[in-house]
């Protein structure tokens, strides 16, 4: 599956946020990458601000442009506020649910677990990272994969209670997707209305 595999710190510096988690380089160099990054003072246009939010959302959830566009079009057709529905669709992706459950330390790692058939949905192996999990479905670790070091390390000390839309069962190493998360519960710092404005041009 195609995905961004370039330097993550460069993207985080470009966006000015640690979208991939704590970043030591970003902490020291909180300015755009490149030879003239520190001296760039050009005011960002309205379009540039909107584009930046879209890029932030894409890189945060690990979605490419064509996938992101399809999700936006689906959000437009769905009842509700388009921007919020878009984030809810991104949150319901299987790789994101695996990450939120603490089974993997990052969305990229979660995607790998899914692709390598370590994850089951309602007891059946699903190896499609973009699979849309529905409320009521149970996402868990495949029986023969429960002893994987990456999963054990990720789950160690993970606080599952911080996401009220999922319910974790430590005994079975699985979690139930209770309901679509409310916008207030989604922790990502994304101004989704700017993305809607961008696509509405």
Strand order of the largest sheet: 2-1-3-5-4
Tally of helical segments? 9
Gyration radius from CA atoms, angstroms: 18 Å
Order of helices and strands: HHHHHHHEEEHEEH
Instruction: Estimate the strand proportion.
Output: 5-15%
3D shape: globular
SS-based class: alpha+beta
Q: What number is the mean pLDDT?
A: 88
Counting DSSP E segments of at least 2 residues, the number of strands comes to 5
User: What distance lies between the first and last C-alpha atoms, to the nearest angstrom?
Assistant: 30 Å
Percent of residues in helical segments? Answer: 40-55%
Low-confidence regions: none
**Major β-sheet, in short?**
5 strands, antiparallel
Top keywords for this entry?
alpha+beta, 5-stranded antiparallel beta sheet, 8% strand, globular
Characterise this structure.
This protein is of the alpha+beta class. Helix content is 41%, strand content 8%. It is built from nine helices and five strands; from the N terminus they run αααααααβββαββα. The protein has helices at 8-15, 24-28, 46-61, 65-77, 82-91, 94-100, 107-115, 149-155, 192-199; strands spanning 119-121, 124-125, 138-141, 166-169, 174-177. Strands 2-1-3-5-4 form a five-stranded antiparallel beta sheet. A hairpin with a 4-residue loop joins strand 4 and strand 5. The longest helix is centred in the first third of the chain and has 16 residues, at 46-61. It starts with 7 loop residues before the first helix and ends with a helix. 31% of the residues are buried. The model has no long low-confidence stretch (mean pLDDT 88).
């Amino acid at each position: 599956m195609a995905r961004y595999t370039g330097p993550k710190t460069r993207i985080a510096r470009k966006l000015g946020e640690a979208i991939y988690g704590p970043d030591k380089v970003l902490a020291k160099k909180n300015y755009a990458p490149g030879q003239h990054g520190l001296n760039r003072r050009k005011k960002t246009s309205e379009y540039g601000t909107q584009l930046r939010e879209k890029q932030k959302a894409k890189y945060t959830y690990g979605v490419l442009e064509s996938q992101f566009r399809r999700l936006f079009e689906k959000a437009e057709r769905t009842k509700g506020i388009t921007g919020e529905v878009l984030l809810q669709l991104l949150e319901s992706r299987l790789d994101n649910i695996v990450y939120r459950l603490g089974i993997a330390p990052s969305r990229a790692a979660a995607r790998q677990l899914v692709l390598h058939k370590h994850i089951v949905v309602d007891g059946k192996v699903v190896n499609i990272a973009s699979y849309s999990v529905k409320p009521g479905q149970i996402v868990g670790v495949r029986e023969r994969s429960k002893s994987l070091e990456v999963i054990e390390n990720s789950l160690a000390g993970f606080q599952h209670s911080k996401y009220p839309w999922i319910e974790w069962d430590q005994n079975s190493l699985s979690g139930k997707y209770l309901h679509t998360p409310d916008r207030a519960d989604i922790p990502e710092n994304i101004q989704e209305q700017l993305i809607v404005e961008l696509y509405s041009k």
